[in-house]
Amino acid sequence: MRKTTRYHSDRFRLNNQLMWPVLGVVFLSPFAFGSTKPSFWLLWSVLLSLCGTILFARMALSGARFRIAPRNLMGLFGLFAVLGIYMAFQALPLGSLAPSVSTVADPTARIALNTISLTPHDTILALTRWANYGLLFFLVLQMTSNPQRARVFINLVYWAIVIHAVVGLLFLLQFGDTILGIPKWKYFGSAMGGFINRNSYATFLAFGSVIGINLMIERMTETNPGKGDSSLFSRYLGKGGVVIIGLGWIVLVMTLIATNSRMGVFAACCGMIASVLMALAKRTAGTNRIVIWTFLLLIPAIVGLGIIGYGTTFIERVGDVDAAADVRMQLYQQVVTMIETRPFLGFGGNSFEYAYPLFHQAPVSVDLVWDKAHSTYLALWAEYGLVFGSIPMLIVATILFQLGAAYLKVPGQDMLLRSGIGIILVGAVHSLVDFSLEIEAVTFAFVVIVATAWARRFELGNTGDRGAA
Questions:
Q1: Average pLDDT of the chain to the nearest whole number
Q2: C-alpha closest to that of 157 among 171, 143, 169, 168
Q3: Domain ranges for the chain
Q4: Phi/psi at 299 (nearest 5 deg)?
Q5: How far is CA 378 from CA 8, 241, 350, in A?
Q6: CA–CA separation, 135 vs 255, rounded Å?
Q7: Across residues 249-255, what is the average pLDDT?
Q8: Do strands 178-179 and 182-183 pair parallel, antiparallel, or not at all (unpaired)?
Q9: Which of 75, 143, 319, 384 has a Cα-to-Cα distance from 84 of 20 to 30 A?
Q10: Which of left, alpha, beta for 105 (phi over 0: left; psi -120 to 50: alpha)?
C-alpha cells in the first residue's frame, strides 16, 4: 500500500512540474511570429523532447504506471505513426516509384527526382513537427488525466490567450500598428499580436473565445460555486467568477474582430454557438436553461458591438467576399490538378511552396507568392496523397466522435468536453479556406486543448474519476 502511494505521489509531482514547461511552449510560441520558422520548430522540439525524456525516465525510475497507458492509445497513435512513417518514406531515395513531373510553362520537359518528395529536407522538418504534436498530445494527456489539474490547466491556457489578445490590441492601437514593435509589411490596420498572418492569429483567439464561453457556462450553472464566500459573490466576482472570465472573453472577441479575419470570426461564432447549443441540449437537474439561453443571445450582441467599434475594415472585407471567393476557387482548381498528378504519393511533406509553382498559371495572380494552399485539407492531399493525407482528418474525426459520445453519457454538463468539441469545430471550419493549423503555434494550442478534453473523455469512458495523479 505504501509502495502504491509513493508511486502516485511521484506521478502527481511529476505531472504538476511538467505542466509549466508545456504551458510555456504554448504561451511563448505565438510571440515568435507564430513559430513559422524551422529554427523555432527545432527549439520547441528540443524542449518538448526534454520534457518527454524526463517523464519516461522518472516514471521508469519510480516504477510508477502512466495514468493513461500508451497501450490504451494504440488506435490513434497507430494512425499517427503511419503518417510519420510515410513522411520518412517520402524522403528516402525512392524517386523511381513516383512519376516525373512537368511545369505548365513547358509540359514536354520532365523533372526526375531521387525522392518522392520534391524537397526531402523540408519533409524531414515536417516529420519533426508531426512528432512534436504527438509527444505534446501524450504529455498533456498525462497531466490532465487528473480532473482538477485539467481545469487549472485549461484556465491557464485561456488566460494565456487573453494576454495575447491584449498584446494584439495594444500594438494595433497604441504602438503604431506594428508586430511587437516591428514595422508591418502587410495587413495594415489589422491586429496580429506576435503572428505574421491575421487569419492564424484569429484562429488562435477563436480557441480562447470558445474556452471562455464554456468557462462562463460552467460557472453560471454549477451547483456549489463557492466555499467560504457567499455563493453570489463567488459566482460573479470571486476568483474565476463570471465577470472576470467575461472581461477576458470580451477582450478576445474585440481583438478577434480587429484582426479583420472574416472566416476567423465566423469559425469562432460556430464554435461558441455550438458550445451553447450542446449545453442547452443536455437536460440535467439543476441546470438553469434561462442563463444558457442568455449566452446564446450574448454572442451576437458582443460580436455586433465589436464590429461597430473595431469592424470598419472587417465590414469592407465582408463586402469583398465574392471577389475573394473567385480568386480562391481559381487557386483550388489548380491545387486539385496537383493532387490529380500524384493522387497517392503526393509531392512531399512541407513541399507545397515548391511544388505549386509547377502548376501556377493565370488567372491566379502572379503578383503574389502562393506558398500555402489556403485550405489545409487540399494541402494535406497535395503533400501526402489522398490516402495518407486523410489520416490527420481521420484522427481528428475519431477524437470528435469520442468526445461527442462521452458528452452524451456523462452525467451533467462538462466544460472540458464541450471545449474540445468547440475547438475542433473552429479548426475544421477555418481549415476549409485557410492554413491556420499549418502554423505551429496555433497547432500547439489546438493539440493541448483537444488532448485535455480527450483525457477527460478517457477517464469517464474507462475508469471514471479516480484519485489524484
A1: 88
A2: 143
A3: 2-321+372-463
A4: -60, -55
A5: 45, 42, 13
A6: 31
A7: 95
A8: antiparallel
A9: 143
A10: alpha
Helix axis angle for 2-28 and 38-62, nearest 10°, is 170
Cα of first residue to Cα of last residue in the chain, in angstroms, is: 16
Give the predicted TM-score (pTM) of the model: 0.93
Q: SS3 sequence, 133-145?
A: HHHHHHHHHHHCC
CB 420 within 8 A of CB 390: no
**Which SS3 state, helix, strand or coil, does residue 182 take?**
strand
- The x, y and z cell numbers of residue 157, run together, are 491556457
> Which residue type is seen at 439?
I
The per-residue pLDDT for range 329-354, each reduced to its tens digit, is 999 999 999 999 999 999 999 999 99
Contact 420, 452 (CB under 8 A): yes
Report pLDDT for 413.
Answer: 82
**277 vs 280: CA distance, rounded Å:** 5
pLDDT number for residue 369: 77
Query: How far, CA to CA in Å, does 17 sit from each of 24, 111, 140, 238, 469?
Result: 12, 52, 12, 27, 12
Is 276 within 8 Å of 218 (Cβ atoms)? Answer: no
Sequence length of the chain is 469
- Closest alpha carbon to 300 in 270, 342, 337, 345: 270
Using pLDDT thresholds of 50, 70 and 90, give the confidence band for residue 84.
very high
